[in-house]
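#onboarding

Welcome to the new folks! Below is a worked example of what a typical request in this channel looks like: someone posts a single protein sequence, and someone else replies with the predicted structure as tokens. Don't worry about understanding the tokens yet, we'll cover that in week two.

Example request:
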Amino acid sequence: MADDGPVGVDTDAAHSVLTVTDAARGVVLGAMAEEPDPDGLALWVEVTGANGDAYAYDIYFQAASDAAPGDVVGRGEGLCVVVPESSVARLTGARLDWSDEGEGGLVMLNPNTPPRPDIRVRQGDLSGELAQRALLVLEEQVNPSIAMHGGRADLVAVEEGVAYVRLSGGCQGCGLATVTLSQGIEVALVEAIEEIHSVVDVTDHASGNNPYFEPAKK
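Example response:
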């Protein structure tokens, strides 16, 4: 396996699964060397669930011989890595790196995200005082900013401290919509209105055609 090359390759589909950087590999090999019978161990990388818009992972040492048919096993540069079959599709194209920030740690950079839940929220009554305050924040603080990129955010409903918004224009179908929501819209609403604690995007992004974002061509 070449440096920063794919650690695992599905021999049937011949597609890259997981990349391990030199920095991460060095840390992993150092920790593995302190384990009993390190020669028989592999680094197992598994998707265990989701935390919001990102996957959650379990990264651990286990015998390489425990790999089952369908698991992806990659060897190179002294490191064996196993990705269980159930995690292959969700880790394809991911990169395991090492970060020196804070106390340091392994960092997973994964282009794949959990599927969005099917959220159906009917248009609520926006005549109430709380909804009117939320509308004011969107019109005065949020929309002037995202309008520069052709986007707009409209309030759909406010229920039990949750503001439901629908994005349109340049924000619909945009790969950065999640960032816009969490770092822009949610921050503005939560800071301005204490009764609101979170914001949920109910946009049908699959039908959007955003001119400001184009996925990389394969």
